[in-house]
Amino acid sequence: MVQKITVDFEPIGRRVEATPGQTILAVAQGAGFTLGAGGVYSPCGGKGLCGRCRVRVKGEGLSPLTEAERRVFTPQQIAEGFRLACQAALYAPVKVEIPPESMVGIQKLQVEGIEVEVMPEPPVARYTLTTEQTTIENPRPVWQQVAQRLASDYNLSQLQVDMELARQEPPLAQAKGGTVTVKGREIVNCFFHRPVPPPVGLAVDLGTTKVAGFLVHLETGATLASEGIMNPQIAYGEDVMSRLAYALEDEGQYQRIHQVIIDGLNRLAKDLATRAGLETKDIEEAVIVGNTAMHHLLLRLPIAQLARAPYVAAVTTPVEIKARDLGLSFSPGAYVYLMPVIAGFVGGDHVAMILGSRLDRTDKIVLGLDIGTNTEIVLKYNGRMLSCSCASGPAFEGAHILHGMRAVQGAIQAVRLKDGGTEVELETIADAAPLGICGSGILDAVAELYRTGVIDVHGRLNRQHPRVRVPEGGPAEFLLVPASESGTGEDIVITQKDIGEILLAKAAIATGTELLLKAAGLGVEDIQEVVVAGAFGTHLKVASAVAIGMFPPLPLELFRQVGNAAGTGARAALVSLAERRRAEEIAKQVGYLELMVQPSFQDTFVSSLSLPERSSL
Fold first, then answer.
1. To the nearest 10°, the Cα dihedral for 182, 319, 571, 540?
2. Peptide bond into 599 cis (omega under 30)
3. What is the pTM for the complete model shown?
4. Domains and CATH numbers, the chain
5. Which helix H or strand E contains 17, and what residues bound it?
6. Angle 553-556-560 (CA atoms, 0-180°, nearest 5)?
7. What is the pLDDT of residues 215-272, one digit of tens each?
8. Each residue's pLDDT tens digit, 382-410
9. Collapsing DSSP states into helix, strand and coil, what is residue 118?
10. Cβ atoms within 10 A of the Cβ of 340, count?
């Protein structure tokens, strides 16, 4: 029997078994990654002629470079692990990153959140003024004239000019005037020799798995374009601890994982600007929010203390830094504002979520959950806020699930069982043939397996059930989709291990909720509203989350799904200095509960692994 090898495909999150000697393209196509299904694009039919099936490989188990690959790639790209999927044969387990340009398909990324009313108070302002040509009779350079005009016409004195802007702009005044952009006491942009675009800024929710970007009109608050991409750092680890470990191995790796997100943000900004009929050099301000690890990796801060106890941040205060100092290609003097972080695992994105959902402004007792690879929970009660972080893991992104995948076309996103679990109804993204199952689908499936009695309170599969089977040498599994109905030509199943992964994730969230309530001296019955945020939180079925005990057993009408509230908070802070001040107050007010040091943590977690009694569903 030929021994199989495993291949992890990112960013779609699929693990596939391959036969030694198969090309990466053949493995991808065999797994159903075809055109329109998040697959690898190879218009020449895999002959190595077009160079379009580029992938980046982490691992040593590949065939030597072919002549076709040497023609396509530079020595630098070869050193970085780039290969042509149609040329590279597999002989050992590897991780394959499919770059955006090589991938086709629909990735269901949550970008939008709730809309909130914000009175614009932009951090930058535009001023129109006149200048006179610099001559012997009028030997005043352009910036001297600008400073004098701003002082006399707008009562703005003691201004400085951004040095990069001064380097780019000719010192001799030639135009008869123009428009300048001022931030505080600094001139950060000017328009003397080109049309004046609208004042725009970029808001970014920098997630561990997904990155949401918004191009926003700074004076009106209108979103001109929005887009979500996968965080390219995924190639170096699915979770923050893996990425921290990678960056800590050596300085070159830290630089690499930093640069890959900078490149991703520049691509995102360019795409958004293009869609709005603008250029990236028109972006005059940016706000970026992310968890503490993403924040530190972006800023190149010390991270060793984040990777081990006591897990503390290097900087918790708000940060304002020139975009160019990060490597971001915006307007010459543009700044990036990063919200303050709260603790080692509660970052600026949590502050932004509270700000965007207006959770801090309610008099109710509210539980807020921002669900992702790392889930942050906040309890608002009696004028106070208390937060914690729980490692829910990447299972809800489809990782560590046998047939798990991210929310791309063909992913099963909803499941309903009938007739005691013998009949299965599915909903897939784009109504495509099922290729695997994403987070909302696996959550639904576990809830349905429990509701119909296919699993017991401990998540164990009933081996007597007609759709449950026990392969030789493997765990028990539930047949979700037979090979004849799947898009891969293979059965899609839910294994006993898959169920265990979901129970671990739900137990982490349930434990965080219970310990927060205990610290506040409250019970579940005291909760008056539950705010559910985040990409996964948007698409999950609340009833399924309650059914398996991930959410507290409360009436469904008390739950409010708010989408990407962190992105909403980032946009609010982008256009309003008052919102930034509010965010900074939130960060000061929120207390942090370290779950691992709570005496009852272990017992609470173990008890949360069980499913609730069916009578309470």
1. 170
2. no
3. 0.81
4. 5-102 (3.10.20.30), 125-191 (no CATH), 348-392+503-616 (3.30.420.40), 395-499 (no CATH)
5. strand 14-18
6. 110
7. 999 999 999 999 988 888 887 887 889 899 999 999 999 999 999 999 999 999 999 9
8. 999 999 999 887 777 766 788 888 777 88
9. coil
10. 22
